[in-house]
Amino acid sequence: MSAIVCSHVDKSYGATTVIRDLNLSIEEHEFVVFLGPSGCGKSTLLRMLAGLEDISGGEVSIGGRVVNDLEPGERGIAMVFQNYALYPHMTIFDNIAFGLKRQKVPVAEIKKRVEAVAKTLGLEPYLARKPTELSGGQQQRVAIARAMIKTPKVFLFDEPLSNLDAKLRNHMRVEIARLHQSLKTTTVYVTHDQLEAMTLADRIVLLRDGVIEQIGSPAEIYRRPGNLFVAGFIGTPNMNFIDVAVGRKDDRWALTGAGATFLIDGSDFDLRGVHRAVLGIRPPDLKTAGGGDSTNLLQGTADLIEFHGNDALVTFACSGKEVSALVPARECPVLRAPVRYTFEQESVHLFDATTGASLRRQEKA
Amino acid sequence: MRPYRTTPGRIIGKTILAFAGFMAVFPLAWTALNSLKNNVDIITRVPRLVFTPTLDNINYIIGRDSVMTGLYNSIIACGFAVLIGVVLGLPAAYAVARYPNRWAGDIQFFVLSLRFLPPVAVAIPLMVIWLQIGLYDTLPALIVTYSLLTISVIMWLAIPAFQAVPKEIEEAAFVDGYGAYSVFWRIALPVAARSLIGAVAFSFVLVWNEFLIALMLSSSNAKTLPIVASELSQQGMNVPWGILNASVVLLSLPPLLFLGVLSGFLNSVFRQKKT
Predict the structure, then answer these.
(1) Which residue from A132, A321, B140, B169 puts its CA 20 to 30 A from A67's CA?
(2) Region of residue A279 (left: phi > 0; alpha: psi -120 to 50; beta: else)
(3) Are both A52 and A83 inside the same structural domain?
(4) Domain final residue pick, A210, A232, A254
(5) How sure is the predictor about B103, in pLDDT bands with cuts at 50, 70 and 90?
(6) Distance between CA A183 and CA B246 in Å, rounded?
(7) Same domain as A248, residue A186
(8) Amino acid B269: pLDDT
(9) Which residues of A fall below an 8 Å CB-CB distance to B?
(10) Residues A94 and A104 grouped into a single domain
(11) Whole-prediction pTM
């Protein structure tokens, strides 16, 4: 049985439609991440699951029960907010216990459960303190404890790590991942940070303008982006895009653009009847070309070099088109040196120039 | 951080502040001192800091029936008016702040407009109304009238106080299973308490010091302390300065006590009990 089902869900504020005819099914124990740029409707969708926003149309069910008209407290969910939303006038203990008190759980059991949860999250020393006496990371842990203690059917996380500094964010990300491993509670997690999405998710739901662009495992979305938007959004550094004209040369497809012609078998792609396409190639898929390489070359003059540690990102102009290659730092050229890069045809992505949809054959996807 | 340094600018600033503080506090202190002086010590050409203190003025004030009636009337009228203001004004302010509908803006403006009008414009029709009903010169009339003031002032100040409570905190409580009323009681009220204390105290001071409406709505029975105090100065040419000063002290004490008790009370109520 699916833990959460959204069918034909709409959300509009007056004349503005935020979410349009959204269909989504989330399995039990699954960790699903809603990913997308600001204003794509991902937080709104989460808040609709939580019951904090009305559902304008369609149906949402949680655990097999339609929840459209249920109060947040009746939905069997727990939520962690971006700014923690701890009750400032209560101690940490009372913050965590607040939900249980509502459920009329006996005082002795509340104490036992709060202490157990506090132990799991390392909050024992702080139970008597007020939220303002804690650091950001500790406050977020309290917020997670407050969600955990209710043993909900579904955890909802609304950008929980975006108020933390980079180092703490990595640390908390690992903690959330471990927590999910041990609790196995169905989790919906909203973020605009693709690293969080990639590392945490069983499945990513990529949203733009209130519409699902693609649903898939992190690997699927990274390796087989369904359209130009997904390809450009996922992956750091960003994928290179080159407008190409599609033609035949001998038995192969010839893609001409950026002052070069690239030859591919094209067996992965459905290129019949396509004249113009966008070729996508990820910077790490570009390899420094040896003297013997003569096909699929991108060349130019290195005009920006960003050192990343193990790797370096080399940006060069290829017939006026800016292209980046992520190469091992030891192969890094000097600034303004001529560079030549090549790629395997397996690493190529092709998109329709007008619709932006991937030209990859469906059965292979 | 920059080390603390004594610069000329800082000295000038502190001097100005000290002067302003002196300007504010000195008249109060002088009034308090004068209430303990004999008339001879007050009307002397050279102000006296050293004098033989006397309790005559204070005894005279406390001993007068009209003053004690005025004090009683003031406490009852202002106390109930503030109570009604709190009971009706705070929930109303919360509703306007959190559940705005298409009238929310109008409500806010209307509430504020009660304070725009000159008090006389409000007082005359009210006087006619109370006369017609037959409640003129009674405490209930004064309480209801003052409630109009306290409700509007409390709403006016409490709406932004409730709006300043982060919405997520209330949403977290909804997710924790609480309904709108519990969220108001257990979250919004305590979190906004500091600003709300200010609103309630301000409304109290406003009606406590209120003069014009009280003057027009009372003739003998429902006179409040400001009216009685003002009458003390109308006793002919020989102004009893000591007695006047003592009545001012008496008039100033309740608001101070009220503020102290109120903030202490709220602090203790909202401090979490140890479980």
Answers:
(1) B169
(2) beta
(3) yes
(4) A232
(5) confident
(6) 72
(7) no
(8) 59
(9) 50-52, 71-74, 77-79, 81-83, 85-91, 93-94, 97-99, 102-103, 107, 111, 128, 146, 150
(10) yes
(11) 0.81
The CA distance from A93 to A307, in Å, is 47
Within a 13 Å sphere around the CA of A259, how many CA atoms are in the beta-carbon half?
11
What pLDDT is stored for residue B273 in this prediction?
43
Q: Is the domain of A227 the same as that of A108?
A: yes
Write down the domain spans for chain B.
8-56, 58-270
| Other Cβ atoms closer than 10 A to A236 | 13
Give the three-class secondary structure for A329: helix
8 Å CB contact of B177 and A91? no
pLDDT of residue B267: 66
Print the domain residue range for A328. 233-364
Count of domains in chain A?
Answer: 2
Given A181, A209, A232, which residue is the final one in a domain? Answer: A232
Same domain (yes/no): A60, A134:
yes
- What DSSP line would sit under A57-101, residue for residue? EEEEEETTEE-TTS-GGGTTEEEE-TT----TTS-HHHHHHHHHH
Q: Between B172, B270, B274, which is nearest A89 by CB?
A: B270
Q: Treating both helix axes as pointing N-terminal to C-terminal, what angle do B225-232 and B65-84 enclose, rounded to 10 degrees?
A: 150
Work out the average pLDDT over B73-90: 94
pLDDT of residue B47: 80
Model confidence at B272: pLDDT above 50: no
Query: Least CB-CB distance to A72: which of B168, B175, B193?
Result: B175
Same domain, A252 and A187: no
How many whole angstroms separate alpha carbon B83 and alpha carbon A22?
51
Judged by CB atoms closer than 8 Å, whether chains meet at B191 and A88 is answered as yes
Among left, alpha and beta (phi > 0; psi -120 to 50; other), residue A356 is left
Contact (Cβ atoms closer than 8 angstroms) between residue A327 and residue A312:
yes
pLDDT of the residue at A128: 93
**Partners of residue B166 in chain A, C-beta under 8 Å:** 83, 85
| CA B268 and chain centroid, separation | 21
- Give the Cα separation of A247 and A257 in Å (integer): 11
Domain covering B58-270 in this structure, CATH number: 1.10.3720.10
Q: How far apart are CA A113 and CA A81, in angstroms?
A: 22
Cα separation of A251 and A265, whole Å? 8
CATH of the domain at A65: 3.40.50.300
Angstroms from A234 CA to nearest CA on chain B: 30
Say if residue A322 is in the same domain as residue A181. Answer: no
Q: Are residues A10 and A63 in the same domain?
A: yes
Name the stretches of chain A with pLDDT < 70: 1-2, 363-365
Report percent pLDDT > 70 for chain B: 92
CA distances (Å), origin B269, targets A64, A101, B187, B264, B265 = 43, 19, 13, 9, 6
